[in-house]
Amino acid sequence: MKAAVAGYAGDSSDTVDSERQVDVVALGIVTAAILLFVATGSIVGPKVVDSLLHRAPGPDSFILDAFLLNIAIIIFGWSRYRQLCEEIQLRKAAERQARRMAETDPLTGFLNRRSFNDSVNRMIAAATENGQTAVAMMIDLDDFKQVNDFNGHNTGDLLLRECSRRIAASLPKYALIGRIGGDEFAAAFVFDSARDEAIDQVASTLLEAIGKSARINAIDIKVTASIGLARSDIPRIDDEPLDARALLEMADIAMYHAKRQGRNGFYWFEAQMADEMRFRTELERGIRQGIARGEFVPFYEQQIDLQTGELTGFEMLARWNSPYFGIVSPEIFIPVAESIGAIAALSENVIAQALEDAKTWDSRLTLAVNISPLQLRDPWFAQKLLRLLIEANFPPHRLEIEITESCLHQNVAQARSLIASLKNQGIKVTLDDFGTGYSSLAQLRSLPFDGIKIDRSFVSSLVENKDSAAIVHAIAMLGKGLDLPITAEGIETGDVLEHLMQYGRIKGQGYFYGRPRPARELAEWLECPDREPAPKSGIPDISPRDTPLVPPDDLAAPEKKRAHRT
Ligand code: C2E
Ligand code: MG
Ligand code: MG
């Protein structure tokens, strides 16, 4: 791999001092020995020659001893000097090794977060001095967690190593590269500011390189990346001098923008992205606080037996009653809660409230709740749910868990074991949003679902769209064939209802029967003796409290398009 660990600090002063000390000692020994050797040698030498040639008396034995001792000292001094040199070499190597370990990531050999930031600071300072521009790149692998979950951490590590090789090969040789998080890399280098399309080219090449399939442990794995770019000559609002932290933060914001735009793309930082980021941070903070303050509340949507028009139960749909944002749709807060690891707490909170509410209903009415794919991965989920049921003293057979079809795609084995544990407790499990997640018929047969819900996109459009009608028909037949009860969601009009009647005994829900409503409104409606079970026409008024928060720009629904510099 290319050297990406440029920018080490120089040798430590301790090492330099000790080296000097050894030099002085060694020099002293050698100089003293040489002086003595010359002094004694000048006396002993001629006397020895005289005694050999003219049979004169030999040198004085004291001088001879001093001369021999002097030779011994030279030999001893030399060997000690060699020994010290070797010790220093060893110590230097150990220090180098320790420093490398402290400054680099052992898996990829890239700089770690701290040393990367230090090196980028030095690079920015040098670039500013020379009138050059530096660019920072934040590179985050998309959905890398899934690679670990599906294939294990060993394969994940090998893939990270392969990605790091590709990153190093795609960037300029002089680039600083760091691994600053599990699946997050950063790079920085100076470039010709008049040619920023060259950086676009580097980013495209990098995306292409990472996106190529890699063979790891005999499995072909594909992973993509999202890249954020920021340049050091961008005008600063606060006029603060730009440092590594600020530059990387901008690249990070641009990287998150790329994620929201559908991943596998790159974006340059622009000032308005920071506003989006602030909004996102507010949302995250609001969600964390909102859970603790009980701001997440259940709303309920009727579920009807289409043939008899009889109410069979309710689906609980969470709403965030935020003092700051108003009523917020789950389409917005669920993904954010998932990404900040707050989904389990949020979900348990609203399910607990829903169980309390449902206890007050007629005991024949069921309660359906949705769970996130992340909860499906929690091996303790079934136990947690059981605890909630026991605490609420709610009969398990009245509870239905809705698992979206996309969950199955992520991990069938986990889904199978969770469904089995839930069913053992008497809880029913239905497959939500069927038709959107490409689950195979074999999977459907092998997983013991208690029902299938046809996705609302097909149901609501079945009158005007022949394809939707054909899909609804096929799913209804499939349900009959597999003996699985079917629920059609998204019934908005009497025409759709009429069309669905042909399928006999199926359940349905949708705005035709009313918008989801909060617990108190629902309780009043249930208690009303002359309530109409199933309105015959028209869509009831939207409750003002059910108006969802409109997300800024692209925050809620990422377009599935490849991102480029805007
Ligand atoms: P879902 O489970 O498929 O719920 C049905 C969604 O369709 C609800 O949106 C509901 O308000 C909407 N809907 C119902 N009837 C109609 C109709 O006739 N026409 C149209 N256009 N829409 C209709 P909502 O409440 O915004 O929920 C969206 C999704 O958020 C839900 O889809 C569910 O997947 C998720 N969700 C809701 N509550 C929770 C929760 O507590 N936990 C988790 N993990 N997900 C939840
Ligand atoms: Mg649902
Ligand atoms: Mg659904």
Identify the bound ligands: ligand C2E, magnesium ion
Low-confidence stretches: 1-13, 535-566
The CATH architecture of the largest domain would be: Alpha-Beta Barrel
Number of contiguous helices: 19
Number of strands: 17
The structure class reads alpha/beta
Mean pLDDT over all positions = 86
Write the CATH homologous superfamily of the largest domain.
Answer: EAL domain
Q: Kindly provide the name of the CATH class of the largest domain.
A: Alpha Beta
Main sheet properties: 8 strands, mixed, barrel
Range of helix content: 40-55%
Q: Can you give a write-up of this model?
A:
The protein has helices spanning 13-54, 61-103, 113-129, 144-151, 153-170, 197-211, 244-260, 271-293, 330-339, 343-359, 373-376, 381-392, 405-410, 412-424, 441-446, 456-460, 466-482, 494-501, 519-527; strands at residues 133-141, 176-181, 184-191, 214-216, 219-221, 225-231, 266-268, 296-305, 310-322, 326-328, 366-371, 399-404, 428-434, 451-454, 486-489, 507-509, 517-518. The protein has 566 residues and is of the alpha/beta class. The chain has three domains: 13-103; 113-269, Alpha-Beta Plaits (2-Layer Sandwich); 302-564, EAL domain (TIM Barrel), CATH 3.20.20. The strands form three sheets. The chain has an eight-stranded mixed barrel with strand order 8-9-11-12-13-14-15-16, surrounded by four helices. The protein has a five-stranded mixed beta sheet with strand order 2-3-1-6-7, sandwiched between helices. A two-stranded antiparallel ribbon has the order 4-5. A hairpin with a 3-residue loop joins strand 9 (310-322) and strand 10. Helix 1 (13-54) runs antiparallel to helix 2, helix 5 (153-170) packs antiparallel against helix 6 (197-211) and helix 10 runs parallel beside helix 12 (381-392). The longest helix has 43 residues, at 61-103. The model is unreliable at 1-13 and 535-566 (pLDDT under 50). Bound molecules: ligand C2E and magnesium ion (2 copies). Ligand C2E binds at residues 301, 317-318, 329-331, 334, 347, 350, 370-372, 402, 404, 432-433, 456, 460, 489-492, 509-511, 516.
